[in-house]
Amino acid sequence: MLNYIVRRLLIALPSLLGISIVLFTVLALAPGDPFEELATNPNVPAEVRMMLRQQFGLDDPVWQRYVRWLMSMLQGDWGFSFQSRVNVDQLILQRLPTTIVVIGLSQVLAILIALPVGVLAAVKPYSWFDRIASTIAFIGFSLPTFFTGIVFILFFSIYLGWFPFVYRSDISSTGWQFFWDHFKQSIMPITVLALFQAASMMRYVRSAVLDVIRLDYVTTARSKGLTERTVINKHVVRNALIPVVTLVALQMPAVFGGAIVTEQIFRVPGIGSLLIDAILRNDTPVIMAVTFVLSCLVILFNLLADVIYGWLDPRISYG
Amino acid sequence: MADVIADPDSAGAQRVSGGGTLGPGPEPQLGKAVASISPWQEAWRRFKRHRLAYWSLWVLGFMVLAVLLGPLFYKVGINDVDFQSRLAGPSLKHPMGTDDLGRDILARVLYGGRISLAVGLAAMLMAISVGVLIGAVAGMARGWVDAVLMWVTDLFLSLPQLPLLLLLIFLFREPLKQAFGLELGIFILIVAVIGGFRWMPVARLVRAQFFSLREKEFVEAARALGASTPRQVVRHILPNSLGPVIVAATIDVAAAIIAESTLSFLGLGFPPDIPTWGRILYDGRDYMDLAVHWAMFPGLAIFLTVLTINFIGDGLRDALDPRRVL
Predict the structure, then answer these.
(1) Is A2's Cβ below 8 Å from some Cβ in B?
(2) Separation between Cα atoms, residue B295 and residue B293, nearest integer Å
(3) How far, CA to CA in Å, does B124 sit from each of A224, A260, B243?
(4) Cys-Cys link to B146, which of A1, A295, B138, B204 (CB 3.0-4.6 A)?
């Protein structure tokens, strides 16, 4: 098992390197100079500007800049935000937990919705329940997250007044009230993201269960006299979950995309809104680091899926 | 290889009209009654049985017509400012109401629809062309070429798309604007960026199809008769792998429309004076308590378009899969 994980890690490394090269090339090719502001400022003499450029190594060949950048990335030195005058790693560490909590909870909620609905739909394919569930799933993933978010705000915040529609990080209450307020303002972003995920997940679960339920070993289990409940829960669902795990992990880039949009709608102070702010302010080190962190997270989730896959499916050998 | 790229599109156009033949099709000779129906007619018959897909085709067709021909009949300018009726709700004069400057929302939605549909189609064509090309090369060449191409495909699949999309658009917006003008530059950029991030599933699909098809007897027969590799690909293998590609192409149009709207919604799409659906929605969201219609109509337009395209894709999946009994 350990051997398998190590091997998977070694396969993931080149992808990580590839992503860093792609990122760096994009930035190197692009116009836009972080020292533009200094160049147009008449109070800064040209010599000082040249000194600064030299100090930050902006005039070196591209590959030298890449190697230097990669080395400092690996050492945890992610640079200094041009705009907020804080170290980038601190900035990201501040924002990352919120995003992880929102994404994590929405995934859990999505699984809680998608799994039972998908299994029930597949057990009786083409029944009324299946038709209605499949149609709703179609509607679910045809609704872009920004539109669902707006409809939610309109209905739950403006008409009903149940939830606040702007996420606040400076809640003054303490104790249980503090948790309750945080919970209340997180409900809408989490639900919007979860519904979008649940829609496609439900279809995966349904087709995976449909693939498994026709197999001979299920007939065997039935003819042994096991109850339908046992057959479905212990024999069918367990095996149907194996491909679902991979598909969920492959969805992770889309989930991060959805999180950026939801954070923007509800003004959640997560890593996504940090990215948008940084892009609008031409804050290169932050953009770079956030994109890199998101890529690493995606690769991490793929790795996790592979490991879980190997653990769930005895046909895969670790040798 | 240019033929390989052009082929799926022309074949796709053929299938819409219901005519044309598929070359050595996947349907075996089952008897005279069946042989008189072409594969595309058979697909159309099967497509009609998916009722939601069939009705979606009508709804989408109506919307496309409205967007294309609507501005010819509905002669209200997208920038006609009317301060008398600011934020007015839907009425006979303004069927979808007005925005904060009194501009007619129906006119803006019709105009935005053209851009959204154009972006969707162009990005789909780009994604399918790149995907088919890479998939076909990997599937025919095999060996190290296949390994490298699939590594690149996997790498692209694990890139976080939206952040990179935002980054690319932000960085390359100005130079393209200067090179091609405001609207065309942004259009090219958005199409290239969306298309450039959606070819991977198609490439994998085509590669898998090529792997199984190139070992089939009819391809072997063609090879034995001395058909060159390009001829084997264009004439025999590619037409038979088109079914899943057409389905993927349909879904890609919907995905590209969503992506474009998302970019506009985040303020990084077309400039503010060009009303795309995402942009109108973005502008309207600050006035939701006063003028619900402003955000709702463009949102509904996006939703309906994407939903009908997805249903049509689902219907095509059923119709173009010869193993499926309907």
Answers:
(1) no
(2) 6
(3) 51, 24, 16
(4) B138
d(C-alpha B106, C-alpha B127), whole Å:
31
Helix (H), strand (E) counts: chain B: 15, 0
Q: How far is A192 from chain B (nearest CA, A)?
A: 15
Q: Give kind and range of the element (H or E) at residue A111.
A: helix A88-123
Burial (CB count within 10 angstroms: exposed 0-12, middle 13-18, buried 19+), residue A12: middle
Spatial neighbors of A177 by CB under 8 A, at least 6 apart, are none
Query: Which pLDDT does position A82 carry in this prediction?
Result: 67
State pTM to two decimals: 0.79
Q: What separation in angstroms does the CA of A12 have from each of A78, A257, A298, B145, B155?
A: 21, 22, 11, 20, 10
Element (H, E) at B14: helix B2-17
Residue-wise pLDDT tens digits, B251-310: 888 888 888 888 888 877 777 778 888 888 888 777 777 777 777 888 888 888 888 888
Least confident range from A95-109, A122-136, A295-309: namely A295-309
Query: Can you tell me whether residue B104 is helix, strand or coil?
Result: strand
Question: For chains A and B, what is the number of CB pairs under 8 angstroms?
Answer: 119
Task: Find the chain B residues whose C-beta atoms sit closer than 8 A to any C-beta of A.
Answer: 52, 151, 154-155, 157-164, 166-168, 170-172, 174-175, 254, 258, 261-262, 265-268, 278, 281, 285, 288-289, 292, 295, 299, 302-303, 306-307, 310-311, 314
CB A209 within 8 A of CB A240: yes
Whether the Cβ atoms of residue B276 and residue B269 lie closer than 8 Å to each other: yes
Is the confidence at residue B61, as pLDDT, over 70?
A: yes
